[in-house]
Design goal:
The chain is α+β, with helices and mostly antiparallel strands and about 100 residues long. It is built from three helices and four strands. Strands 2-3-1-4 form a four-stranded antiparallel β-sheet. The relative contact order is 0.32.
Amino acid sequence: MARAKVIALYKQPEDKEKFDEHYFNVHGPLTAKIPGLREMNVTKIVGSPMGKSEYYLQCEMIYDDMESLQKAMKSDEGKASGKDAFQFAGDIITLMIGEEVDE
């Protein structure tokens, strides 16, 4: 069965220090409590092959399967994480849901 993931992509925040403080001290720990979350991989974007990137941070939240992901999103912890994300980064966040491809 293919693992499912939520991918959060954040554009460059106006205040990186303030963003980092909230993301790593509040949002990350809140998200880590979501039931069924197997892995949480955070990547700071340092650039692109063309130089600068409009993106600042990416987080992949990995679940066993789509059913686990959907259950997690409906949990109180999942709702709290989503609410927090949109409160502190609603104007710069893009969320995607995907399934890993086994080839």
